[in-house]
């Protein structure tokens, strides 16, 4: 509890009074809904959700924060406390496309009158990639893929699976099926021949995540998988951001933290929302190259690039707010390196070196709100 208070003071407290509530246990896990469809999703009948945010927490600036849903105990409760006690919206992207991506989003956007990107993407493996059906065995019952990660299965593993199947009966023994299916689910392996599995290609991941074809082309293959594993699922984010289109017919000024390869910006572009200016904060050189290349080919607005959230000072934020008349949207998802379940070695929650960068999101957002309150 004291640590939360110290961090809040260190990173600027709350912009406009009303300290976040510290009632309840810091370690209480935040329950994840089942199905994980957030406040609403197209095609899902559910009780309508209404939420009324305190006046000081409404936009502009609108803000949108994302991270992995299945974080260690207490993480989402802490994030929510820092972000004005706003309830997270947990969504698994499998309800919008053919691959899972369980994420939590905290934002102050309206939740009424959302609209999905059209055409809506396919929701099953065979709809997305019909050519795989030829070799797909009847005992592989998957209809969707699991979450796309930053690394892929090794050639040694796919060879081992091929040998196990080649030396087995047809259909294989249950024990062989169980082994193969476990590896296929874990690595999102697809069937490309008789007894032959392989990881998804980077352009297939781009498609599943809602990016244009060849968005990450030009990077080394390892860097492509890493950048795609860390980005937004565009259709999901665009559904949430779609409310901005009517609100800002002349376009938006965006402060983009942890930009990555530009998932948020691609979502805005696909929605037809003009970005008058984007201040992009991204430390990865490969990600910056991809984002800059996409921007130069598709956008006409102003792009300002900053290397690191740590170097974005409050004075610099004040100057940007003055220059652009404020930001309409502050968007970003801080690194999940110390939060994700598959990270066995540095599972330190928000105290981990990378995931502690969340507190800079909070600091920067507060600085924007304070600067905009003065203009």
From TrEMBL:
Residues 49-375 form the SAM-dependent MTase DRM-type domain. Its EC number is 2.1.1.37. Residues 1-33 are annotated as: Disordered. Pfam families: DNA_methylase. GO terms for molecular function: DNA (cytosine-5-)-methyltransferase activity; DNA binding. SUPFAM superfamilies: S-adenosyl-L-methionine-dependent methyltransferases (SSF53335). The keyword S-adenosyl-L-methionine applies. GO terms for cellular component: nucleus. It is found in: Nucleus. The active site is at 336. Belongs to the class I-like SAM-binding methyltransferase superfamily. C5-methyltransferase family. This is DNA (cytosine-5-)-methyltransferase.
């Amino acid at each position: 509890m004291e640590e939360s208070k110290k961090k809040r003071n260190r990173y600027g407290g709350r912009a406009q009074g009303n300290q976040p509530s510290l009632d309840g246990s810091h370690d209480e896990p935040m329950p994840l809904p089942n199905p994980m469809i957030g406040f609403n999703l197209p095609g899902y009948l559910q009780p309508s959700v209404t939420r009324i945010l305190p006046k000081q927490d409404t936009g502009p600036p609108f803000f949108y924060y994302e991270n992995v849903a299945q974080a260690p105990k207490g993480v989402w409760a802490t994030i929510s406390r820092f972000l004005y006690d706003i309830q997270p919206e947990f969504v698994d992207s499998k309800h919008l496309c053919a691959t899972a991506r369980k994420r939590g989003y905290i934002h102050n956007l309206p939740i009424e009158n959302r609209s999905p990107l059209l055409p809506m993407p396919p929701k099953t493996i065979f709809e997305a990639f019909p050519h795989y059906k030829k070799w797909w065995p009847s005992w592989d019952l998957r209809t969707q893929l699991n979450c796309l990660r930053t690394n892929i299965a090794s050639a040694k593993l796919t060879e081992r699976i091929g040998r196990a199947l080649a030396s087995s009966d047809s259909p294989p023994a249950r024990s062989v099926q169980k082994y193969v299916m476990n590896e296929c689910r874990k690595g999102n392996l697809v069937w490309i021949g008789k007894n032959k599995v392989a990881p998804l290609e980077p352009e297939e991941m781009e498609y599943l995540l809602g990016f244009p074809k060849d968005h990450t082309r030009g990077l080394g293959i390892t860097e492509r998988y890493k950048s795609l594993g860390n980005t937004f699922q565009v259709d999901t984010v665009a559904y949430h951001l779609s409310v901005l289109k009517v609100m800002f017919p002349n376009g938006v000024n965006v402060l983009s933290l942890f930009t990555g390869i530009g998932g948020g910006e691609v979502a805005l572009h696909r929605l037809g929302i003009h970005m008058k200016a984007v201040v992009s904060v991204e430390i990865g050189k490969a990600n910056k190259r991809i984002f800059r290349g996409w921007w130069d080919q598709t956008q006409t607005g102003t792009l300002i690039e900053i290397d690191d959230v740590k170097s974005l000072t409050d004075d610099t934020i004040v100057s940007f707010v003055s220059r652009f008349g404020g930001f309409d949207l502050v968007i970003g998802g801080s690194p999940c390196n110390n939060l994700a379940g598959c990270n066995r070695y540095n599972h330190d929650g928000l105290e981990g070196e990378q995931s502690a960068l969340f507190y800079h999101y909070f600091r920067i957002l507060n600085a924007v709100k304070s600067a905009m309150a003065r203009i």
